[in-house]
Amino acid sequence: MPGQMVTQALISKSSKYQFGKFTLGKFLSLLMVSGLIYLLAHRSSKGFVSGELHNKEVESRHASKDSPTIRTFWRKPPRLPPRLPPNEIYKNSSILHHPPSSEWTSRQKKVKEAFEHAWSGYRNYAMGHDELMPLSRRGVDGLGGLGATVVDSLDTAIIMGADDIVSEASKWIEDNLMKKISEKGQVNLFETTIRVLGGLLSAYHLSGGDQAGGGDSGIAVAPNKTNPDRLLAVSKDLADRLLLAFTSSPSAIPFSDVVLRDRSAHASPDGLSSTSEATTLQLEFSYLSRISGDPKYDSETMKVLEHMRTLPTVEGLVPIYINPYSGQFSGENIRLGSRGDSYYEYLLKVWIQQENYRNTSLKYLFEMYTEAMKGVKHLLVRKTTPNGLVFVGELPSGRNGAFSPKMDHLVCFLPGTLALGATKGITKKKALESNLLTKEDIENLQLAEDLAKTCVEMYFVTSTGLAPEIAYFHIEGNPEGGPDGGNKSSEYISDITIKPLDRHNLLRPETVESLFVLHRITEDPKYREWGWQIFQAFEKYTKVDSGGYTSLDDVTSLPPPRRDKMETFFLGETLKYLYLLFGESNILPLDKYVFNTEAHPLPVIRSVVQVSNTV
Questions:
Q1: 341 in active site
Q2: Considering just the CA atoms, what is the radius of gyration of the chain in Å?
Q3: Where are the domains of the chain?
Q4: 183-199 tens-digit pLDDT
Q5: Which residues are annotated as a binding site?
Q6: Residue 553: pLDDT above 60?
Q7: 601: DSSP letter
Q8: φ, ψ for residue 483 (rounded to 5)?
Q9: What's the CA gap between 538 and 560, in Å, rounded?
Q10: Whole-model pTM?
């Protein structure tokens, strides 16, 4: 009956009135009602998304088949996640803000500007000295007087495209370094190899000197900015003098110190060498043999690792001191911090570098690395109370002694090394798709991510957002307490103790190194976010207006007291890794390059001709 009345009303109107004032609007209304009736009769098998779904689970899958209500069509907009403070942002990667690529390009530019600011202070007040004292505005020579900051910075400048700095550093090296090498006295074998020799060789490669392996870097060669031939000549002269530490020793373990002008070498005052220092020389010397055609560099340094293969270990772990006279370990102190760290790093990286011999003559290196990582997991890895941070402790008195819940910032190299060892430099996604990961690889990747989080918490737990040199962790049954990091809003304030003598920050690179490697391998954007927060803290608290950046005495107090020292590795490592972290993955790909322990990239050696006579 009502339908007939509506029809009669429509018929009784004039045609103009029907079209202009009534029929169009009413027709649309009827159309909407008809559509509603149709939807009720032919609803989707999947049902409708309710606004309530953001807040609770659907009680039953059958509920989706119920008739929709009016609020289905006028539902509330979805609830946005809350904004978190910077030190909380990483806790839920699903709500991370992922800046567009243009923003990461902008952030990468900020790192380049920081490098230029650091260099300006060094150039203006300390050019030719090893390091800058930015507050005193003068230079200091604590590494033998070879202008270590110049050489350590050169490949960073090449990577960043800082052409003016490339020109300045290259000219200084060409005009001064050979003369300094011939005149200077005692230098440490390890520090000079990783910073100066490593820096020269990396710059040689990146500036186009190595035609056989220079096409994979993704970095444009700036013409006429460097002199590769001169870089190689200086490298050979320096290496020839450093080789005296190997040939003068009665064992395969080199002496720790070299007198450059006298071409002589000797042991340290206590007669011992650090295990890490004696075993962290091979990447540089092997690559020099590759490009010079002279096998002596590779031969002498590889004897060290061959000898280490014969020594007893504790589940692959080794004491931090070794005697160059006897070739045997001294003491039982086992740790992955100072004097132990890069031994484990180079077991893996030397194996990666020599691609053609990974499954033959150098297979033992990966086997030693694998055994050592099993030992780390069994003997050194613990979790904190109350919140379960994963960390790596120490055995100061060996396997049968007490466990120490102490972890140096230096140990934060380990997450990157574990990730690199798991995938050999390719992405996790690619490794999984190709079925290349073993169960142990997957475990090591997880440990790498857990340890990286702990390393970042060492930053976020402090008042400045910068990490101390050393942290102690609370574990069950350990009554040792102490002062915290000062950031009372940190969830982990009760897990970490920072003792007064350990509160300094030296602008170290190990954490951002691991963030760089983990981002490349996992492709998880949280590692970039963490790196950006760390960079901002460096900018806020360590930047010196007149040029340079300074170390800090106490990261737990505000404002932090400053130490007046800019280490060479801030330019050579820290800023380089941050720049690469924010950049594209085709720059220095990790399956084609290995970074020495001072962040100097050297190419994986793929040549058919074997240079080494150690095989």
A1: yes
A2: 31
A3: 101-601
A4: 999 999 999 999 999 99
A5: 597
A6: yes
A7: E
A8: -70, 150
A9: 12
A10: 0.84
